[in-house]
């Protein structure tokens, strides 16, 4: 049994589906293990994203908070996991700028509480069980701050310089994980990944938001000059990298994950528009990129992220399988075929956020 936290979110649900399926990148003992998903089901967590696995006998869902020590302690005692994979977090940068309380609570305090319970559980394992146990913390490239246009990509040795409340909270959690390894000998692994995209991505994030707005004839709001660069990784590649690190990563180490797919935001939005023109042309014959609107920039907007994944590639033999071109085509096809999922996650809470972020001062009128 392994415990996954935050498994009803975007990356977690893709990870669970892969774990319970048969498409393992790394054959290892843990591949056969069952999986318990602990998720608070915030606005970003949705059980519809896991509807196809919920009756799998190897799968169990528990609604709860990683910061609830009594619950976490009970689950550890019952499930006796050989590994924890911690996805649970508040993940949207713009929301952290609008108000960081939940980010501090879940990403910092929640991770601390989880680590404390896992430390107690680990302490009473047998020597063999201790040898096998892993705590894998899923983190982000944003902890490294922003790169100049000609600077080398982030390696694991890069200094932490988080710039948003979100990235600062993730950086704090990474430091706690590091400290629990150094101080208590907890067998931790940390992964720092670049921007993911793919199925089940909540439509507050750039790519799914652009797809949905395009289809609904709404403005496509590009922040600032649209020249910020992100390094895009198809979500299945992130999941295979996590499995590789879990199976063979060196305890106490951090691994950067990325697929060398740097794109400006304008390149991304234009690609989305061109694929929609091909796959679902507008009824009036116009191009979707006519909906692009430049809006006020994000506060403190990091200019560029890029990941150097050499350590993961050379030590563990992992390589991304998708290019941006193949991954984005799959992603758009998935959204076109799964509009019912989008409608179901677009709850009242989601509509309220769109109003706060884009609607209030009508910065992006078409
Ligand atoms: P997400 O926002 O889609 O999902 C987060 C999940 O965590 C949701 O299911 C939510 O209900 C759950 N959750 C939130 N607070 C919780 C709590 N206190 N207890 C239990 N569950 C809680 O996020 P995502 O995009 O899937 O990201 C998952 C992880 O990967 C995060 O830690 C994020 O920082 C990291 N990450 C994301 C990306 C990306 O591009 N999305 C890239 C690198 C790293
Ligand atoms: O780099 C990894 C990170 O990637 C993860 O840690 C975060 O959890 C994840 O949300 C993502 O953060 P970003 O801020 O890079 O992703 P987002 O999709 O919010 O924005 C991508 C870029 O697009 C960024 O430069 C801001 C811009 N943008 C975003 C939105 C939502 C726009 O121009 N318009 C928009 O409406």
Report on this structure.
This protein is an alpha/beta fold. Strands 3-2-1-4-5-6-11 form a seven-stranded parallel sheet, sandwiched between helices. Helix content is 43%, strand content 14%. The chain has 13 helices and 13 strands. Mean pLDDT is 94; it is low at 23-27 and 361-366. The chain is globular, with a radius of gyration of 20 Å. Strand 5 (134-140), helix 6 (165-184) and strand 6 (188-193) form a beta-alpha-beta unit. It has a domain at 2-198 and 234-260 and 304-321: NAD(P)-binding Rossmann-like Domain (Rossmann fold). The longest helix is centred in the N-terminal third of the chain and has 23 residues, at 101-123. Helix 7 (206-215) runs parallel beside helix 9 and helix 9 (265-279) packs across helix 11 (324-337). The structure holds nicotinamide-adenine-dinucleotide and 2'deoxy-thymidine-5'-diphospho-alpha-D-glucose (DAU). Nicotinamide-adenine-dinucleotide (NAD) binds at residues 5-6, 8-12, 39-42, 44-45, 65-67, 87-89, 91, 106, 110, 138, 140, 170, 193, 195-196, 202.
């Amino acid at each position: 049994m392994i415990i996954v936290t935050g498994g009803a979110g975007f990356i977690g649900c893709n990870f669970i589906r892969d774990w319970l399926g048969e498409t393992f990148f790394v054959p290892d003992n843990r591949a056969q293990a069952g999986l318990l998903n602990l998720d608070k089901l915030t606005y970003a967590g949705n059980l519809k994203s896991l509807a196809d696995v919920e009756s799998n006998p190897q799968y169990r869902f528990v609604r709860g908070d990683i910061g609830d020590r009594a619950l976490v302690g009970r689950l550890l005692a019952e499930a006796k996991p050989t590994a924890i994979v911690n996805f649970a977090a508040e993940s949207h940068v713009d929301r952290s700028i609008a108000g960081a309380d939940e980010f501090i609570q879940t990403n910092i305090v929640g991770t601390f509480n989880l680590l404390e319970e896992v430390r107690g559980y680990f302490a009473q394992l047998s020597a063999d069980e201790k040898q096998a146990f892993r705590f894998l913390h899923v983190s982000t490239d944003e902890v490294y701050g922003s790169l100049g246009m000609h600077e080398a990509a982030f390696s694991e040795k890069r200094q932490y310089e988080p710039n948003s409340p979100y990235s600062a909270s993730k950086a704090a959690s990474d430091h706690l994980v590091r400290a629990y390894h150094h101080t208590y000998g907890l067998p931790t692994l940390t992964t720092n990944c670049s921007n993911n995209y793919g199925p089940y991505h909540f439509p507050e994030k750039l790519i799914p938001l652009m797809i949905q707005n395009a289809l609904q004839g709404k403005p496509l709001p590009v922040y600032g000059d649209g020249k910020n660069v992100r390094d895009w990784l198809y979500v299945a590649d992130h999941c295979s990298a996590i499995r590789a690190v879990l199976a063979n990563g060196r305890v106490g180490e951090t691994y950067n994950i990325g697929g060398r797919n740097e794109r400006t935001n304008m390149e991304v939005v234009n690609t989305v528009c061109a694929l929609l023109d091909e796959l679902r042309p507008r009824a009036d014959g116009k191009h979707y990129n006519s909906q692009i609107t430049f809006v006020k920039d994000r506060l403190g907007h990091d200019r560029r992220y890029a990941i150097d994944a050499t350590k993961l590639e050379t030590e563990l033999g992992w390589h991304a399988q998708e290019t941006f071109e193949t991954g984005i085509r799959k992603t758009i096809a998935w959204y076109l075929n799964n509009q019912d999922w989008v409608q179901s996650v677009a709850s009242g809470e989601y509509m309220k956020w769109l109003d706060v972020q884009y609607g209030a001062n009508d910065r992006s009128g078409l």
